[in-house]
Amino acid sequence: MINDSKTSRLAEIYNRLYxxxxxxxxxxVHRNNFELLVAVILSAQCTDKRVNIITPALFxxxxxxxxxxAASFEE
Length: 75
Description:
By secondary structure, the chain is mostly helical. The chain has helices spanning about 5-20, 35-45, 50-60, 65-70. Helix 2 (about 35-45) packs across helix 3. The N and C termini lie far apart (about 45 Å).
């Protein structure tokens, strides 16, 4: 069951954020939620531009969470 007061509050928050930021796009290149999560974590350590340079090779080698988790530290 959806609480109408929560729905109204969420709509108000969304509208205020939209008024300030508009219809912005994420500068990180990604194809799915996994890639976006990894890119966001990496972007905390360097620039978005650098992340977009290195992630294609990273995701080619480790394209799933399971593949990345199974990688050695050296890889």
